[in-house]
Amino acid sequence: MADTCKQRGVVASLKHEALVYEHLAALQGTVIPVLLGCGFWRDEGIFLVATSIVEGEHPSSDTAAAYPAAEKALRMIHVMGVVHGDIREDNILVSRQGAAFKAPVGLQNGSGP
After folding, report:
1. Could you read off the pLDDT tens digit of each residue along the chain, which spans 113 residues?
2. What are phi and psi of 61, to 5 degrees?
3. CB-based contacts of 48-56 (< 8 A; 24+ apart in sequence)
4. Maximum distance among all alpha carbons in the chain?
5. Is 81 exposed, middle or buried (0-12, 13-18, 19+ CB in 10 A)?
6. Do the bridges between strand 46-51 and strand 92-95 make them parallel or antiparallel, or are there none, so unpaired?
7. Given its phi and psi angles, is residue 82 left (phi above 0), alpha (psi -120 to 50 degrees) or beta?
8. What is the C-alpha separation between 110 and 79, in angstroms, rounded?
9. Of 89, 87, 90, nearest in space to 78 by CA
10. Is 18:49 a contact under the CB 8 Å cutoff?
11. Which pTM value belongs to this model?
């Protein structure tokens, strides 16, 4: 198994993801997961981005009512200058509170951090 953190650009991408989370602090826990922390784990050279777990399911015909909530969430993210860059059903979870975006490395910075 390859150590992903030693691959070129991975740590920089994860650090950028954490900066985007910090930039979107006002949206954490509502339309994106809460950033719990980030940094290197022990002295192992492993960089982690830890977020809250969003319990839910991916959009389907059963959860079609969540699409307007997902669109609203995406607009809120855009207003703060961030472009998600990887919008697809696999990156959206429908929770009891509405729609929450998972935040993979696909988060891209528009004019934000």
Report:
1. 456 556 668 888 888 888 989 999 999 988 888 999 998 887 777 888 899 888 887 777 777 777 787 888 888 888 998 887 777 777 788 777 666 666 554 455 454 55
2. -65, -25
3. 48/14, 49/14, 49/17, 49/18, 49/21, 51/21, 51/103, 54/93, 54/95, 54/100, 54/102, 55/93, 55/95, 56/93, 56/94, 56/95, 56/96, 56/100
4. 46
5. middle
6. unpaired
7. beta
8. 10
9. 87
10. yes
11. 0.75
Q: Let me know: does 99 contact 31? Beta carbons within 8 Å.
A: yes
Q: Which residue's entry shows tokens 């959009």?
A: 59
Tokens of 66: 């969540």
pLDDT for 35 equals 92
Q: Do 70 and 84 touch, CB atoms closer than 8 A?
A: no
